[in-house]
Design brief:
Low-confidence stretches: none
Distance between the termini: 42 Å
Shape: globular
Number of helices: 2
Strand content: 35-45%
Largest sheet: 8 strands, mixed
Radius of gyration: 15 Å
Length: 141
């Protein structure tokens, strides 16, 4: 695979998330996926179960493709970016205006499939974890 092809697969993953389209077909059958507060998932079945759970918390998400920072090395594609969206409870987040929205994904893509993906972000999109992080109580949203 070329660097451009790997970047295309990674971008497709993010675009499909935004459109609420199938992303499982982009994963290798034995893929590994790390997500904060969930940990490491192994295989499409675990990833699928997680996505159903995540869908209960997020009703809309949009990744700002114009702000992607992309770095590649071998089979790795790293994309740093910003997102905005709305939680299932109706709380809106916008990177740069609320605490949530900045993220980084590290993809290992081989044979046009995601073999490993690690997502780094704060999964508390609504800023509801105020008991442990009191500065969220005063943050403008």
């Amino acid at each position: 695979m070329t660097e451009e092809q790997r970047v295309s697969v990674a971008r497709e993953f993010l675009l499909r998330l935004d459109k609420d389209e199938d992303i499982l077909e982009l994963f290798d059958d034995d893929a590994l996926y790390y997500f904060p507060k969930r940990g490491l998932m192994r295989g499409k079945q675990e990833i699928s179960e997680f996505l159903v759970q995540l869908g209960k918390f997020i009703s809309v998400i949009k990744h700002d493709a114009d702000r992607f920072n992309i770095v590649t090395q071998g089979s790795l594609v790293v994309i740093e970016g910003a997102s905005s969206g709305v939680t299932a409870d109706g709380v809106e987040w916008v990177a740069g205006r609320t605490h949530a929205g900045n993220w980084c994904d590290v993809f290992d893509i081989q044979d046009f499939k995601i073999r490993r993906l690690s997502t780094y972000l704060d999964p508390d999109y609504a800023g509801a974890d105020t008991a442990r992080y009191p500065w969220l109580q005063t943050e403008s949203r």
